[in-house]
Amino acid sequence: MKKIICTLFIILLSVSLFAKNSVKYAFNAKRAVKDKGNSSFNKTISAIELVQDMKTGWNLGNTMDANGSTGLESETSWGQPLATKAQIDGLVAAGFKTIRIPCSWKNHLVDSNYTIDPEWMKRVKTIVDWAIADGMYVILNDHHDNFDTEGFMHYGDGYYPSSLNYNESMRFLRNLWAQISLASNSGYDEHLIFEVLNEPRLRGHSHEWNYMKNCTTCKNGAQTLNKLNQLCLDTIRVSGKNNANRFVMVTGLAAAMVSYTADDSWVLPVENGDNKLIISVHMYSPYPFAMQNPGIRDFSENLTAELEFNFKWLADKFVSRGIPVVIGEYGATNKDNLEDRVKWFSYFIHESRKYGMCSVLWDNGDWNPRNTYEEKFGFYNRTEQKWYFPEIIDAIMSNVD
């Protein structure tokens, strides 16, 4: 009798575990790209140690994130050249150890079930593989799939952090990260890092970029984002193998400092076991110098206070608890002020590295400020593998320990 009871218990336990781990998705599994590699994952490295080793990075901006068309043509739809192995080699030669590959996906759905175009997935993997082969850390994300208004979403609109659009957002992100996880699992060790969302925000709302703690829409957005971050993380984890240990970057609303500092509406996803989470934040600060058009052109000592506060606050809030921080995007737009930009980059990297953070330079390819200072974040000549401002690259590398 005991043997029969024991056998029944084992059967019930097996059924329970199978039900928990066998998740059904809408996408066409026959068309999905499957990772068949076999790489050993370093399970002993901590998140803090990993980010320390990532050193400093560069963004392949306006390329795989470009959504001006569908199909493989979208890669060049925003005016940047095709990514090449030579570009990656040039980054490594300059001293960069990390590359962030911003990637958009909703313009690559090939049916009504959230199936990603397999040719697009293969192209993304090709670029990832080039960087991995060069010994780089790779950050792969979901970039420009945030729906553009507060209105009600429909299939193929991506996601939006609001309770109104949670169900559609959930379906899109769940199927998306299931497919990315399927395509990038046991063949990739700890050098591949997932960043679940880029700048999840309340697009079309007056507080799209500036979280306000007394705004009910902001609170609802932060709380919905908590659920979406958790959903994406759980989807990655349930895929098993190396993804069970994959380091994952999560972000607050708009990836902005204020979304973390305003109140406690935003919270980290819950992890079981060792911490594999990394905070993602973007920092174009102080705004009048780094991004505003025309703003100010001089980087004087009185502008360092904001950066000093930001880095120390992030360190006290997260790094001190064993949760590292990656500045997923940073930079200072070209205002024909090279000397001041060099000062800014030197200070920025020195301060961020003091707290063990990795900063990833935003590069959209547009460097010439002839007509405007807006969004002039071009640094790397991707065709010739040369730097438009080698003095800035020198400033970055001289402050990376």
Q: Which secondary structure elements does this structure contain, and how are they paired or packed?
A:
Layout (H helix, E strand, L loop, with lengths): L1 H20 L25 H8 L1 E4 L25 H10 L3 E4 L16 H16 L3 E5 L24 H18 L8 E4 L20 H23 L9 E4 L5 H5 L15 E7 L3 H4 L13 H14 L7 E6 L7 H17 L3 E4 L18 E2 L4 E2 L2 H8 L4
Describe the structure.
The structure is a single chain. With 401 residues, the protein is of the alpha/beta class. It contains 11 helices and 10 strands. It is globular and about 55 Å long.
Write a concise keyword list for the protein shown above.
single chain, alpha/beta, 8-stranded parallel β-barrel, 11 helices, 10 strands, disordered N terminus
Strand order of the largest sheet: 1-2-3-4-5-6-7-8
| Whole-number mean pLDDT | 94
Helix content: 25-40%
Shape: globular
Total strands: the figure is 10
Structural class: alpha/beta
Report a brief summary of the structure.
This protein is an alpha/beta fold and 401 residues long.
